[in-house]
Automatic annotation (TrEMBL):
Occurrences of domain Winged helix-turn helix (ranges): 109-165
Annotated source species: Magnetospirillum moscoviense
SUPFAM superfamilies: Homeodomain-like (SSF46689)
InterPro entries assigned: Homeodomain-like_sf, Transpos_IS630-like, Winged_HTH_dom
Organism superkingdom: Bacteria
Lineage, top ranks: Bacteria, Pseudomonadati, Pseudomonadota, Alphaproteobacteria, Rhodospirillales
Full protein name: Transposase
Region (Disordered): 139-170
Residue ranges, compositional bias (Basic and acidic residues): 152-163
Any coiled-coil regions, as ranges: none
Length: 170
């Protein structure tokens, strides 16, 4: 019994110290050492002080240890801000990129991050910086690099004739 809070006896204090040496996380190790000190009979204040924490932090660590075992001693993942574009909006963006721009509608002949930022603001009503567009593309497995620009009225057959035989002579 630890004060009024019972500590789980799944591991002994020496097993907790051994686990702390090999866990790879300094904060989790400190929590384990504090609990091991308390299991050895030290007061709550002294056990916490020796591990470099406050009594309340030790109490929280004991609650997490009792609930989840040594896995509960690791830091919990922090929350992240939600994606600026939803999954369906990102899918629409990817489809538009693969389809390519229509110069008469989109006003550009190749997609750039700046052009995509304008397209996103028109399509979804969300203002986004071009650098953020590049990050969204990388997260979705695409590159911000673009192909060489091609004029929309390019004659592919004329280019082929020129590259194979050179200019036709009269």
């Amino acid at each position: 019994m630890y004060g009024r809070l019972k500590i789980s006896e799944a591991k002994t204090s020496s097993e907790l110290r051994l686990w702390a040496r090999h866990c790879g996380s300094g904060r989790a190790a400190a929590r384990a050492y504090a609990i091991a000190n308390a299991l050895d009979g030290l007061s709550r204040a002294e056990a916490a002080r020796l591990a470099g924490m406050e009594r309340q932090a030790l109490r929280d660590a004991v609650l997490r240890y009792n609930a989840d075992g040594v896995d509960g001693l690791h830091d919990r993942p922090k929350g992240r801000r939600a994606e600026w574009l939803t999954g369906s909006e990102q899918a629409t963006l990817a489809a538009a990129i693969f389809k390519g721009p229509k110069p008469e509608i989109d006003g550009v002949c190749t997609w750039t991050c700046e052009a995509l930022a304008i397209w996103i603001s028109e399509k979804f009503g969300k203002t986004i910086h071009p650098d953020s567009v590049g990050r969204i593309l990388r997260r979705n497995g695409m590159s911000r690099q673009k192909v060489r620009p091609v004029h929309p009225k390019t004659d592919a057959k004329a280019q082929e004739r020129f590259q194979k035989k050179g200019s036709p002579r009269p």
